[in-house]
Amino acid sequence: MFGAGTVMTSLTACGGGGDGEAAASGGGGGSCSVPIANADAPVVSVWAWYPNMKTVVENFNDTHTDVQVCLTNAGQGADEYAKFQTAVSAGRGAPDVIMLETDTVPVFALQEALVDLSEHGASEVEGNFGEGAWRDVSSGDAVYGIPIDGGPMAMMYRQDVFDQYGITPPTTWDEYRAAAEELKAAGGPLMGDLPANVPAPTVALMQQNGAEPWTYDSANPTELEIDLNSPESKEVLDYWAGLVEDGLIGTQDQFTTEYISGAINGDYATYISAAWAPGYLTGAGAGEGADAGTWRVAPLPQWDPANPVSVNWGGSVLAVTSQAEDPELAAQVAMELYADEPSLTDGWTSQTIFPLNQSVLNSQEFIDHQSDFFDGQTANKDVYIPAANAYEGSTYSPFGTTFYAQFTEEIAAINAGEKTGSEALDDLQAEMEAYAEQQGFTLN
């Protein structure tokens, strides 16, 4: 997936610097948000932010006499990454184990800020995960994280809207456009949305169409191939740009109150998202009151129905930092934390995670679970488990923050009618090539 070179990639654009308290927990020091159950055991410090992490750490500490976890919430996502980047640059202040979103792993691996877990028994847990989930954290023989959860993508849709306008869930993107045209002609809502502020799902749809935007490996860590403006990628972005131009979809930024209000009010017939989306929408107030029972989910439409491809958006891992006092012990924590049955069950039943551990994906309770959000639909069995198992993995950008920021600008230009999809990708290709060379990469 990525090379463990020494090229520096700043994440300071993600958020502010460290607040001191979080950094103090590195190496097992500082205060812990969950009590230590066995005072005589060595302590491994962990930064993580999921809502149920206190429960997860309590489960771990209560069942381990050989090691304990000191948990700190150093911020969610970007806030944590900014603090970690400060610690990496300073050479001190990082925790032993850190939760990272999967697509940020190569950014820190390139700075040699993460430990290769293949040297500390990672192969012992490889069988707990599917091929795609393991590829996402691997580079050749090296492994830089242990998967927790993922985001197999699908098409959520409003059953009430589809029923009102006689729409059948589309199975291809051609059918998706045809449904959007039917809705517009009948005075219905927008079919969906192309948000500039979250380019990751657009990248996933490019990969679904056979694109490989990034190619590199640990054997040649400073060599990189960038292919963002391939014919496969241009077909995808021109398709979505065409939907925008024809007024078939919206351009509202997602994860905003405006977008949530639109989703609840039925302004969008579909939400192209991931398996974690029901939990996100529920937490934001969707699926309640008049909105209750209106949502369903179907497999992601395909570019080539004869060759279906599953893709992923989101997910997280536990990685061991190069500042860990005892890498072997930290690796044990990364492999065993959020891996026990009580923690995994708490995670998926509370809609905190879509677990990637095969012990859950193969459990009858998870397979047959009837989703309240989807009005009793067995969404795991019907959609999400097949998508997770079919996912073959991705190669993520080695400088995710810069790439996503630039892609956001390009999608915004598309939404403003200033560029076609192809033009945006040609510009993005040139910008990323220039940036890669500035960072010391040799382009192939």
Automatic annotation (TrEMBL):
PANTHER family the record matches: ARABINOSE-BINDING PROTEIN-RELATED (PTHR43649), BLR3389 PROTEIN (PTHR43649:SF14)
Annotated source species: Modestobacter caceresii
Transmembrane segments: none
InterPro entries the UniProt entry points to: Bact_solute-bd_prot1 (IPR050490), SBP (IPR006059)
Classification lineage: Bacteria, Bacillati, Actinomycetota, Actinomycetes, Geodermatophilales
Pfam families in UniProt: SBP_bac_1 (PF01547)
Protein name: Sugar ABC transporter substrate-binding protein
Superkingdom, taxonomy of origin: Bacteria
